[in-house]
C-alpha cells in the first residue's frame, strides 16, 4: 500500500483536494491533478471498519485518458518493484491504450459531426 501511495504522490502532479465528505463508515475525497500530462479529476471513496481501519478504497478518475495514463505510470512503477520484466510488461500493455484513447478523443467529435451532417443531407434529399 505504501508503494502505491508513493507512486500516486510522484505521478499525480499538482494534486489538490477540492472537497471532503465524511460519514460514520468512511469519507470521500474529491481532487484535481495532472496525470501523465493530462488534467484529471477524481474522487476516492474510503470505507473503514468497526475498528477504524481502512477496509476498502475505491478510486474514480476522469477523463478516460487520465485513467489509462495513471495505469501506465503507476502500474509501471509498482510492477518494476517486482522486476524489470514486470515493469516492461506493464508499459507494453498500457501504452497502446493511452495512445488509442487520445486518438479517439480527437477523432470522435469529427466522426460524430460528419455523421450528423450526412443525416442532415439525407433528410434534405428526402424532403426535396
Task: Give an overview in words.
- The chain starts with a helix and ends with a helix.
- It has one domain (2-127): Nuclear Transport Factor 2, Chain: A (Roll), CATH 3.10.450.
- It is extended, with a radius of gyration of 21 Å.
- α1 crosses α2 (64-80).
- The longest helix is centred in the C-terminal third of the chain and has 44 residues, at 84-127.
- The protein has 3 helices and 4 strands, in the order αββββαα.
- A 4-stranded antiparallel β-sheet has the order 1-2-3-4, with helices on one face.
- β3 and β4 (54-62) form a beta hairpin.
- It has helices at 2-11, 64-80, 84-127; strands spanning 12-23, 26-35, 38-48, 54-62.
What are the key terms here?
3 helices, extended, Nuclear Transport Factor 2, Chain: A, single chain, 128 residues, 4-stranded antiparallel sheet
Coarse morphology: extended
The Cα radius of gyration reads: 21 Å
CATH architecture: Roll
Query: What is the count of helical runs?
Result: 3
The CATH topology comes to: Nuclear Transport Factor 2, Chain: A
Helix-residue proportion: 55-70%
Would you summarize the structure shown here?
The chain is of the alpha+beta class and 128 residues long. The protein has a single domain, classed as Roll (Nuclear Transport Factor 2, Chain: A), CATH 3.10.450.
